[in-house]
């Protein structure tokens, strides 16, 4: 698998080495450069200095230096890997600083551990949530209980999509999941949920017979979309197990992931900005806190991060 050229691993305060180990391994496989990043809080400008000589900016530089030394110590065991490694310590909001580094250094993969227990009780904290929404490159979030190689990779796609960009996203998801499955010698599964929009209300207004025909047509449309995504003979060298179910996407994907005991899910996520950005508005954002597997989330081509948009204003 040689799909990534510039990988960023966010360390933060997490002592779990899963993300770092995975990032180094991916960098070796892809012959890629690796950025190891931490982000610290800025020193308040009005903080009282003990010696009355050290300015807040100087104290900030000292803190950055100390964190850089800590990163160097953590990287000592990987010194003989021959992977080009850069250490970066930013100050400010972690997600924002990560995305700025992604944009500036043209990073094509961010990898980090899940944040730990969130206020909702899931393994999905604020940094991971923000990256899913706003990071322009793929984000690989590792659940801490997942170790070693992945045995079962699950690609989640949307076969109801008609837009070319969304269809391209489906193809990207499948190709990336296939590449990882081949690299890990893992089983590859594909899950897609489908349904008839507003089926319940339509049945009340149009009757079961008419809506049943509409459901049948929708099922045929979804099946054609699947055949176009996976044409006969294209992936015969790697058997893909298909899970195509009618129902709510979040429930279907979560159920299949649990049933097959997936280690990694590859899926798309689309950012929502403005007022609606405060809402949990997409399937990836909705289900991740309840998944027991890691997630690799990718954006559609041409996605612009709100961080990029803000920088242009």
TrEMBL record:
The keyword Hydrolase does not apply. It is found in: Cytoplasm. Keywords: Cytoplasm. It comes from the Bacteria. Residues 4-143, 150-299 form the UspA domain. It holds the Pfam family Usp. Required for resistance to DNA-damaging agents. This is Universal stress protein E homolog.
